[in-house]
């Protein structure tokens, strides 16, 4: 969400960074001390050349050396402290935003139906590293360039004007570099991201690709993606290296011309040799922040892009009120005029669906493929991003609940079941605090308990990433046990018997009956007719419309009557 202060809108990320104003002020103070003390070498050199070497006083040299050494210690301490403060601020910023970015990434991935938002963590790292790197130091040092310039003018105006000339050339180079490097760098980053996503999506499906000989064909396509990435990176690096070469040319030219101009002034008797060397050092110091900005410009562009992406992510996925506490839901689910769509699709998937489900009932959703059954299940869970109408749990919008608070009261089994790295018990317990009694109860309800005990380590058996060590039916039953964990008040099962044998389907019917007896609201989406016997009511979907709904026997009778009329859909077709 965006908040407005005066005429300016401040994003959530900007407000978070503004909490570090004190740290930035401390860094500014240490930067001021360090930059002022950088004049010490110049003054020491002037005194050595113009006083000590003339007077031949060893005591004067000793005192001046000790004083200068003392200033060096203070300057080094200031440099170290400002780095330390920024590093600590970066760590605190990460602690402040990491959980928020984590939650927003998951919500964004959910809302965009499969797009990857994991790079948001890389964006956070890039912003943090920029705030603790040389680019920020250059910004803090840049305001002190006029001080050094004034000292150069004090030594001789000609050297001051020469410093201004090179400063303007450096600024022009920075502007030129910005105008020429932004677009190529962003295109290169986008190409790398697309190639990585392409490769990751194929690696996830290697079991399908390898047996059917698809790998060589996909390799050809990957090479095309890789070639585009290399081309984009080559263009970006070429521009960046060209800017770096220009910067080096200016830096070396400035050093040589400043020394030559100083030597000319010494020959004319307008400048002492000590002042000549001191002016050269001061001129280099004057241009150092600008030169550093030119060197770190690419990192600044990357950090700025990362900052903007984080702003958009947090704005599009606002934080839910953490102080919001609700009473435990009973499971009354009501949908009112729900219309659900999808990106790139003109026709809505669900069209004005209205229904109400009561606790202690089992509802079976039937319908042909593409009729909107799975979309309806996701709307019931509050995880479908593009919809209008109302989805109410106990007459409260389901999107208004905190997911952390609501999660234990919901059970969901999607069509695509993912098992996560960890033990069987951790997967069933949803990776929260493991309650052994609840884990065993959920596994028993799903008909898994005896099977799990036959594994090498029982409930402590490691699943492996995505559960590759399990059969499809075993994964589905563990996913069912996860949905049943804690016996939630609302359970939605999408094709729960797709991979089950007769024994597994019988266990599913028993689990559904247990949930019903405990007062849960149960919704089953299925194509198989065996589970229909457990239903209290049926919903029949057709082309996104709730075609029929009502008690099981009435709906089945209506479907049989429709099947007896020519041209109408038979009951088995919708199941």
**Rg from Cα:** 35 Å
Q: Give the N-terminus to C-terminus distance in angstroms.
A: 44 Å
Q: Low-confidence runs (pLDDT<50, min 5 residues)?
A: 1-8, 567-575
Query: Please, what is the CATH homologous superfamily of the largest domain?
Result: P-loop containing nucleotide triphosphate hydrolases
Strand order of the largest sheet: 8-9-10-5-11-12
Number of helices: 21
Largest sheet: 6 strands, mixed
Rough shape? elongated
Give me the count of strands: 12
What is the CATH C-level name of the largest domain?
Alpha Beta
3D architecture notes:
This protein has 575 residues and is α/β, with parallel strands linked by helices. The chain folds into 3 domains: 133 residues, no CATH class; 148 residues, ABC transporter type 1, transmembrane domain (ABC transporter transmembrane region fold); 242 residues, P-loop containing nucleotide triphosphate hydrolases (Rossmann fold). 61% of the residues lie in helices and 11% in strands. The strands form 3 sheets. A 6-stranded mixed sheet has the order 8-9-10-5-11-12, with helices on both faces. A hairpin with a 2-residue loop joins β6 and β7. It is elongated and about 115 Å long. The two termini are 44 Å apart.
